[in-house]
Amino acid sequence: MSKSLIGNDPIIVGNAASAKIYSKIDLSHPFWNNLNRNELIIINKNSDLVELFWGEQAKLNGLIVYKAAHYGKANLNKTRFVLNGKEISRSVADTLNMESVNDYIVLKSRKTDEFITFINSRK
């Protein structure tokens, strides 16, 4: 939040089938106490694809995604790619140097059979 990547009320994606708004989470629940910060990926706010997949709240505040939400069986023909908050083509994604990639995650839309790969690179 201090780097302004996400807002004050981001969507939290705990696994492939769950998403909650930060302000509505019981942070005293054991799930959150045992969470390893290295297992989290930040998805920047202000992405149109974030809004498409999770609504306006996600666009305004971004996402905090637990790596367990990764969808490993994505159909590449139905996958869109986002690099540091900006949509890129698959051909650009295919040319990325993996040494410059900090982390990535593939998520599936809850409403359609579409996938999105969020890639965060070292700047």
3D architecture notes:
It is a single chain. The protein is of the alpha/beta class and 123 residues long. The chain has one domain (11-121). It is globular. The chain has helices at residues 30-33, 48-54, 56-61, 90-94; strands at 11-15, 18-21, 40-43, 63-66, 79-83, 86-88, 101-108, 115-121. A four-stranded mixed beta sheet has the order 2-1-4-3. A hairpin with a 2-residue loop joins strand 5 (79-83) and strand 6. It is 18% helix and 33% strand. The chain has four helices and eight strands. The relative contact order is 0.20. The model has no long low-confidence stretch (mean pLDDT 83). The longest helix has 7 residues, at 48-54.
Helicity range of the residues?
Answer: 10-25%
Radius of gyration: 14 Å
Mean pLDDT: 83
Order of helices and strands: EEHEHHEEEHEE
Alpha-beta content class: alpha/beta
